[in-house]
Amino acid sequence: MRNSFFCIDAHTCGNPVRLVAGGGPLLPHVPMGERREIFVRDHDWVRKALMFEPRGHDIMSGSIIYPAYRPDCDFAVLFIEVSGCLPMCGAGTIGTVTAAIEEGLVKPREPGRVAIETPAGRVDVTYEEKDGYVDSVRLHNVASYLHESDVEVDVPGMGRLRVDISYGGNYYAVVEPQENWSGLDGMSASEIVACSQRLRRALADVCNPVHPDDARISGVHHAIWCDRPVNDVSDGRCAVFYGEKAIDRSPGGTGTSARMAQLHGKGRLTVGSSFRHESLIGTIFEGRVEAGANIGPYRGILPSIGGWARVIGHNTIVVDDRDPLAHGFQIR
């Protein structure tokens, strides 16, 4: 059997976003949380074929647009990545909105504003458009919160680390410089990946956070290593780890949300404050704490993230069952 997918390739502040504009599987008209489960159960080969090698790579990220189930949303998005079908992806949202608006895939009810249904909930987005191009995007992310502070974990090769578990659409282990980790300076991307893999494995035996409003969102699958900024206009710098070997080239949308929620939960960032977050390649997300929020028994924030994306190409991808590598592969 031969399947074709028409994709619009873009990047958000350096991180790839592959928007599947044609060929994605038809899914029942149910809430996105349920559609995500159906996709994972019946169609996950599509994600693997488009995200893994030889058509993708270790940091590949993508999305598929669907009609919204919620009447208060313009359209729905399913996020597909090397790490799985995420509840939410900030860089993916910025890239998806940019590509969808510029290529005419969606027509907003109100110019400059769209509401998106994601598996994590409704996400409101504003954007600035000039001469037919989207210059910038600000996403108003789902409610984010500090789940647990000062979790101590023994990481092979590093020793005992103290991390915070924070939610920004995905759960993150937030690591700041301390006795057994001096910071990002001098660390290569491969070293960050190796440390992240060991940290995630060690945390699996220590904590398993579950979202108080949606038990389908659970577990610490991401890590964000935080340090002093290099750029004078930034407030912080980070390396976001996801998947098996991926380091986000952007500062991470859900990662920046989780970082701001962690700082707010520790009394270091107030409502109304901004947080300019720098990536390993120097690109910046403009974070802002818009308001306080309650997430079950937790007190958190409503964060927004400002960034930009650029469309870099149109891509027709063929997946042919005659190809022994049709459904992709990863080298571990």
UniProtKB/TrEMBL annotation:
Keywords (A to Z) from UniProt: Isomerase
EC number: 5.1.1.8
Catalytic activity, reaction form: trans-4-hydroxy-L-proline = cis-4-hydroxy-D-proline
GO molecular function, one term: 4-hydroxyproline epimerase activity
InterPro entries assigned: Pro_racemase_fam
Top-rank taxon: Bacteria
Pfam families listed in its UniProt record: Pro_racemase
UniProt entry tagged with the keyword Isomerase: yes
First-level EC class: isomerase
Keyword Isomerase found: yes
NCBIfam families for the chain: PRK13971.1 (NF010578)
Record-stated family: Belongs to the proline racemase family.
Protein name per the record: 4-hydroxyproline epimerase
The species this protein was found in: Rhizobium lentis
